[in-house]
Each structure stands twice: as C-alpha cells, then as structure tokens.
Amino acid sequence: MPPTPQQGRRHPAILEIQAAGNTRVNKEQQFYIQQRTKRNAMEYQDIIVERAEGWIEITINRPEKLNSLRDTTAEEILAVMAEVEPDRAVRAVILRGNEKAFCTGIDTSQFTIAENEYFDFYRKRRRSRPINVMFREMGNFTKPVISAIEGFCLGGGLELAMVGDILVAGATAKFGLPEIKLGMMPGGGGTQTMTRRIGAAMTKELIWTGRRFTPEEAKEYGLVNHVVPGGEAINKAREIAAAIAANAPLPVMMTKGVIDRGMDMSLANGMTAEADVSFMLYFSEDRNEGLGAFKDKRQPSFKGE
Description:
By secondary structure, the protein is α/β, with parallel strands linked by helices. 42% of the residues lie in helices and 13% in strands. The strands form two sheets. A seven-stranded mixed β-sheet has the order 1-2-3-4-6-8-10, with helices on both faces. α2 packs parallel to α4, α5 crosses α6 and α10 packs antiparallel against α11. It starts with a strand and ends in a 9-residue tail after the last helix.
C-alpha cells in the first residue's frame, strides 16, 4: 500500500515506537531513539519522508534544481537513514525523485571556493563534507536500499543509486556519468561501484565518453534490476520492498553484508564468511518461527530476533 507522508515532515514521526507493531523496544533502544529524536527534530528542506508498512520512502525534493544534491540534502538523507537503522519495523528504504529527475548530481552552485581555501576544501573531502560522507556511508546501512528512477539520473545521482542495492528504472529514464565533459571525474564512488556492477571495460567507456545511456542499455549492462513503463518505477520498487519486508529481516541483513564484503574477498574467504554468518542464524527466534510456520502451514511472524 502507498506510504503516508510524515506530518510536518519531521524526524520524530519516524521514531514512533509503536509503529508497525514494533512494541518490543528495550531500554537501550528507547534511550537511543529518545536521544536521536532530541538531536534531529527538524523540518526537512530538501527531502520528503513517507512511511509505509514495512519500509520508508525518501524523496529528493529540489525540483527547481532537478533534484541536485547539496550538503543539506546529504545531511537529511543520512539523518533519516540513521533514525531507521535500529527500527525493526523498517525493513527497506526506497529512494526516489520526481518524474523529471531522480537526481542530477551535485549542485555546483553550492560549492564556491575562495582562492586561498582549496587545500581546506581538500581536507574536508573524507570526513566533514556531508555529500562525501553520504556516498561513503550509504552502503554501510543494513537495510536494503531500492532506487526508483524516473527522468534524469546523472553524475552523483547515478552514484547515489549505485551505492544502494537495487535499481528500478522507468522506460524514459536517462543515465550517465558526464563529469568528464566538464573537466572532472566521478567523485561519489562511481569508478568503484560501477566497476563492481558492470565490469571495468564498460565502466571505462561510459566514464571516458560521458555519454548518456538508456534504461534498456543499463539493464543489458547489469546496472539496473528492472525496466518498467515510465511512471511505474515507484510501484515496482514498492512491490520489491513489500516482498523483502515479508521475509525475516536478520537473514536479509546478514546476506547484504556478506554479499557486499564478499566482492572484496577471495572465493575461499567469502565462503568462510558466509558459513560463519549463516550458522549464527541458528540462534535466532525468527529461524524457529519460520520453521514452525512452514510446519504448521501458516504465515510466519518475523520480529528480527
């Protein structure tokens, strides 16, 4: 079912302990939630947050800038992701834009550098510049991130989608990493994330030419999971989120970590990591619930325990 917009678009609405049946909150979680609420209660400027039963949707809401990213956008996205990370009721996150643009990359008008501040700007690149922190940290969240892409998905916008997990594209979407045409290069992880998704040869071609490519090409390259009719990307993304939300969240979390880390491991080390993690699930209540539900021929009720 479609999500409900957060009233006033405020952080505390995400943190309702009672939401979606999440009634078992221990004291540590409650303290964490309360502290995060105090620090992060704020009006969103650049995003809209909506909550459905089992997932949330983050809409980049800068239509006058074709949903380009500035530090405020990154700060707000990271704040929402941090809030839902410990929330057992949230099993997935959907990122979206509007029909004209998912995201067109970095808003360069926000980054004016004085002549004597170039090295200060360089020092900020890893830890204190919110956009760089967002690109680096998005892949570390344990909830699956699904990007519903319509319209332009260029530069940092494509890089944002690629640090997530699943890409769904409307048939009229437009992809590209055009930085080289401006005398620049991808700086949000594109040289690394795209290579891991589609291989080095095609990544080099797309970056070196800076050309745009279609959803059908993106599907052929293995960059996107699904291509759907224009305007239908969000519905497909919700379908996937609902399917994920219906399953046990601990194996989803565990497999996301093993798959992502395994790409940097040898096959032998990856197999060992998988075996170690899979045996941990033998101690979970959800495993017993899943097996019991299968035996009793009923739907399981997973709690993430």
